[in-house]
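Allow me, if you will, to draw on your knowledge of protein folds for a short while. I have a record of one protein: its chain in single-letter code and its fold written as C-alpha cells. I should value your view on which stretches of the chain appear to form regular backbone elements. Thank you for your consideration; the sequence and its C-alpha cells are set out here:
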Amino acid sequence: MTSRFDGRICLVTGSTGIAAAAARALAAEGGAVFVVSRVAEHASELATSIGAAGGVASWLAADLSEEAGADGAVDACVEQFGRLDCLYNVAGISGCRFGDGPLHEMSAEGWDTVMTTNASSTALTCRATVRRMLEQEPAAGGRRGTILNMSSVLAVDPAPDYFATHAYAASKGAIEALSRSIAAYYAPHGIRVNVIAPALVATPMSERAQADSRILAYLTEKQPLARGPMSADDLVGTALYLLSDDARMVTGQVVAIDAGWGLSEG
C-alpha cells in the first residue's frame, strides 16, 4: 500500500457510504482523518473502526449548513491535529422526504432544505477551510491544501423519468459553479479545488432508488460498466487521486464517475 497521505490531515464530511469508504482509504494511506457528521453515532463508529484498523481518526458532530457548525468543525480539526491539508465534502441529502421533486410540485421548504444542506454547507465548509489554509505555511511547490467537493451527474445529465428532484440538481450545479470559481481565485495561493460527479451509488442516501425495480432496470442499461448501482469503493480511487499530490496540477475540474451514464441512451 502506498502512503500518499503520510503526515496529511484530512477532513471528511459525512460518515456513511461514500464518505466512510474514502475516510478508511485515506487513513490506510497514512492520513489522519477528522470525520464530521450530523449524526454523532455514525461519526463515532467510523472513527472507531478506522482506529481499530490501525489508522488515526477523530470525529465531531456538527451541522455544517450553519456558519458556527462549519467554522467550529474546521477549528476542531486544526486544534486536534495542528493543520488541515485536505477537505473532502461528501455530506448531503437527496431531499425527496423534505419536499423536493418536479418544480410544479416542489415545496418552498424542500427547495430551501436541499439548497441549504447541500450547497450552503459546502460553501461554508470550503470558506472555513480556505481561511485556515491561507494561514498555513506552504509546503513544497507552494502547496497549501486541496478541496474535493461532491456533485452529481444529475447537475448536467438529467433523467427526468426516474430522478425528478429539481432542487437536488440545482444544488449540485451550484456546487460545481462555486468550485470552479474558487479554484480559479485560490490557485495562485496553492489551493486546489476539484469536484467529482457520480451517477447512482449504493449508499444509505439512495435506498429509495435501490428499492425501485424500475430504477434498477434502468440502471442496468444507463450504468453499463456497473450493470446497476456503483459501490462507494468505486469512487475511492478517483477521490484519493484528486486529493493527493498525484493531481498537483489539476484544479477546477469536474470529473464524472458515472459507469457510462453520460454515454448511454435513456
Q: What stands out?
A: Strands lie at 9-13, 32-37, 56-61, 86-89, 145-150, 191-198, 254-257. The chain has eight helices and seven strands.
